[in-house]
Design brief:
Elements (H helix, E strand, L loop, with lengths): L1 H19 L3 E7 L14 H14 L4 E7 L2 H14 L3 E4 L4 H11 L4 E6 L4 H8 L15 E7 L6 E6 L1
Parallel strand pairs: 1-4, 2-3, 2-4
Antiparallel strand pairs: 1-5, 5-6
Helix pairs in contact: 2-3, 4-5
């Protein structure tokens, strides 16, 4: 009887730690520099170098998933990291940030994920993930921002901005 009680107590503790604990980290960034092509541009040489830099930077970060918008430049930004980690890119419709934020926090609780989007969608995603606590804009010439959003059930979300 004592063994059964201990096992049940341990199981309840593990379930509680999973359900209530764990910080989800979402790394949000804009695609790297794009070429001058007019329709669905690819990355420029500078953009390809930035994508490679991102892969080197996050190679040991424990990233579990990489979400990219449905554009070539976003896919090309995430591909070097995905290849380095041996995971597949997950494509999402670029403008559906509310649904994306909910999916990230539901499916990846307690894990680290990367989201690669655009200057006109990242502010809304950051606001949604931070529960309205972080408001910003991303300039058209800004490609080096890496926004780290930490979310857990007990504390307000925290946002830190790095440059890479």
């Amino acid at each position: 009887m004592l063994v059964v009680s201990v096992v049940l107590l341990f199981a309840a503790f593990r379930l509680g730690a999973y359900w209530f604990g764990g910080t989800t980290t979402v790394m949000v960034l804009r695609h790297a520099e794009k070429s001058a092509e007019q329709v669905d541009p690819s990355l420029s040489p500078a953009g390809r170098e930035r994508a490679a830099r991102l892969a080197r930077l996050l190679a040991q970060s424990g990233v579990a998933a990489i979400y990219v918008s449905d554009t070539r430049r976003a896919r090309e930004t995430g591909t070097p990291l995905a290849e380095r980690l041996g995971i597949k890119l997950i494509e999402y419709p670029g403008r559906e940030v509310d649904e994306l934020a909910e999916r990230l926090l539901e499916r990846h609780r307690g894990r680290t994920v990367v989201v690669i989007g655009h200057s006109n969608t990242l502010p809304a995603l950051l606001a949604k993930l931070s529960r309205g606590r972080y408001v910003t804009r991303v300039d058209e010439d800004e490609f080096d921002g890496l926004y780290l959003v930490s979310v857990n059930r007990f504390d307000p979300p925290a946002v830190r901005v790095l440059r890479y």
